[in-house]
Write the structure tokens for this entry.
Amino acid sequence: MSELPRARGALIRPATRADLAQVTGVLTAAFDDDPVINWIVKSGDGRIANLRRYFAAQFLFRHQPVGGAYVTDDGSGAALWDLPARSLGGERGCSSSWPKCATSDGHGYTV
């Protein structure tokens, strides 16, 4: 069996549904000031909660079910990857299944 990769000493492993809090926390902090994310999830009351829901939807409905989610064992990192030809929406990706993942509340996305 091959050894799992490491990043700055932390073990990188495939994420499970039990890693939801780590994934949403790390990605919310990392992307809080990202221009594209700021366009998707608008500022205002509840922004952090909306960011967490956005990343939860991405994790639960798009990436983790097909093996495209990873975390570090020390809780410092998380990554979501679109794998070739393995997206839940087929060739078109999650865009075809996105309405099942989240709906807009006018201030961002809710699950």
In short: The mean pLDDT is 78. The chain has four helices and six strands. Residues 47-63 form the longest helix (17 residues). The CA atoms of residues 17 and 43 lie 28 Å apart.
